Amino acid sequence: MTAIRVVGGGPAGSAAAIAALGRGAAVQIVEKSRSPHHKVCGEFVAAETCSVLEELGAWDEFRSRKPARMERCRLRFGSRVKEWKLGEPAFGLSRLELDSLLLNRAAALGATVVRGDLHQPPVSATILATGRHAVAQKGNRLFAFKSHFEGPAGDAVEVFFDRSGYVGVSPVENGVTNVCGIFPENILGRYGFCFDDVLYSSASLRERLQPLSRRMAWLTTGPLVFSGEERENSAEVYAAGDSLGFIDPFTGSGILNALLTGKMAGAAAADGLAPHAYRMACRRLLRRPFEVAAVFRAIVRWGFAEYLAPFVPGQWLYRLTRV
């Protein structure tokens, strides 16, 4: 029997474990955190993700967590607002809930879950799903932050852009609103990394958040580097999710990509497909979304988005950032 170790118990790691178990492999999941916890994430579950959750046998449990339903997308570029109705509804579920249900599903199917750093026996293959790892030049490094807010919850995912960064606002379960942003450290440094001050320096964000109150401390992560390139050690392992490549969170496809590449990694490792062949398949799957995200990011940084927004159909942009 093929023995597979999955390093990381997030969506990509759990999806990999479930896929490998379905092919008869023995799976061990190693998760460094001692207990479940909140993570920095936009927590947007695109409509396309639902079929993947169903394939993983997790759709019913996902629905039982009562995720928020989103019908609209709203983008703000300075004074410009672009809004459209999503072709299919999306959902919002906190990573605390999503990670838990997927990891529990993998354990129920037979995966051994190990928390913390323990001595591990040799295995046939390793799947790396430990998230983002990057080195960037100090001063230009990007950091993300997130918190949950209480108050009136809407039915839209909203993203507030400026040339420096952006902030996403969207509902999750139990009437909670997730607020997650990304900015370079030189901008955050102006405010002493006080994320409340960063948000309220924007008139449109201040107006949007005025009826809400923060219910938890800010979480932060970084530095972040947007890249479709694999990590250096991926020649020997099957990297999945953000360990494979980190796409702009504004696309709303991070969780979808994590589940898809996790499934592919689990199947490849269990079937004995060479890591190089697996990476090529991932590259074919993700090339367009990564390229479109890079172009859009440049347009925002150069200040053209506010002027081009009226001429670009929202659904067109949404679809081009999906696999």
Provide structural commentary.
This protein starts with a strand and ends with a helix. With 323 residues, the chain is α/β, with parallel strands linked by helices. Strand 10 (166-171) and strand 11 form a beta hairpin. The chain has a domain at 3-44 and 59-68 and 95-135 and 224-303 and 312-320: FAD/NAD(P)-binding domain. It has helices at residues 11-21, 49-55, 59-64, 95-108, 185-190, 195-200, 203-209, 254-271, 275-301, 305-308, 314-320; strands at 3-7, 26-31, 44-45, 68-77, 80-92, 112-115, 125-128, 142-150, 156-161, 166-171, 177-184, 213-214, 219-224, 238-239. The radius of gyration is 19 Å and the shape is globular. 35% of the residues lie in helices and 26% in strands. The protein is built from 11 helices and 14 strands. Strands 3, 4, 5, 8, 9, 10, 11, 12 and 13 form a 9-stranded mixed beta sheet that branches. The chain has a 5-stranded parallel beta sheet with strand order 6-2-1-7-14.
Number of strands: 14
CATH class of the domain at 3-44 and 59-68 and 95-135 and 224-303 and 312-320: Alpha Beta
> Any idea what the CATH architecture of the domain at 3-44 and 59-68 and 95-135 and 224-303 and 312-320 is?
3-Layer(bba) Sandwich
The CATH superfamily of the domain at 3-44 and 59-68 and 95-135 and 224-303 and 312-320 turns out to be FAD/NAD(P)-binding domain
Instruction: Tell me the radius of gyration.
Output: 19 Å
C-alpha geometry: globular
Round the mean pLDDT to the nearest integer and report it: 89
The SS-based structural class is alpha/beta
CATH topology of the domain at 3-44 and 59-68 and 95-135 and 224-303 and 312-320: FAD/NAD(P)-binding domain
Portion in helices: 25-40%
- Along the chain, the helix and strand elements come as EHEEHHEEHEEEEEEHHHEEEHHHH
